[in-house]
Design brief:
With 169 residues, the protein is of the alpha/beta class. Helices cover 52% and strands 18% of the residues. A 6-stranded mixed beta sheet has the order 3-4-2-1-5-6.
């Protein structure tokens, strides 16, 4: 499984527009981030995209999980930071899975790298979401014109390799 774990508020503050929005309306900033990240929740990119938000000051005894726009959204339990939640999850997921953590928090980046996760900073992830959104728009335009993308353009490299093996064996 290929998983992307996102430090939610850290990414909001890395985003030029959302950093301004969060000061006025944190709900709108979270929703804006989720909209942008939803383009990455596709089988050829990530089978799991989890966005973790701090809710450490809340009274909830357990984390709250929500499924939205193809994403798993987590609000941590009281007295738990998003960093601590992500660290714990990385320790569990890394054996046998490809785990990427997106944050601009250097301490968190160092810790999860130590557990075997791949890391990227917030700006790199935002660039990736923009590219994914552009690809989605191009695909939609192609479909609107009645043309479908060839199968090899719609499946991952691994699936293409498996299909080629089946075809030629």
């Amino acid at each position: 499984m290929k998983a992307l774990l996102v430090d939610g508020y850290n990414l909001i503050y890395s985003h030029p527009e959302l950093a301004l929005t969060v000061k006025k309306d944190s709900d709108a900033a979270r929703e804006g981030l989720l909209r942008e990240l939803s383009s990455l929740a596709t089988p050829d990119r990530y089978s799991l995209v989890m966005v973790v938000f701090d809710a450490a000051a809340s009274s909830q005894a357990e984390p709250v999980f929500e499924e939205r726009q193809g994403l798993t959204v987590v609000f941590t339990r009281r007295r738990q930071s998003a960093d601590a939640f992500i660290e714990r999850l990385v320790r569990r997921l890394v054996p046998g899975n490809d785990v990427v953590v997106a944050t601009s928090d250097r301490t968190l980046l160092d810790v999860v790298r130590g557990f075997g996760a791949t890391t990227m900073n917030g700006l790199s992830l935002l660039d990736m979401t923009a590219e994914a959104l552009d690809e989605t728009r191009e695909e939609m335009k192609r479909m609107a014109r009645g043309g479908r993308a060839p199968l090899e353009d719609r499946v991952s490299e691994e699936v293409r390799r498996l299909l080629d093996e089946m075809r030629y064996s």
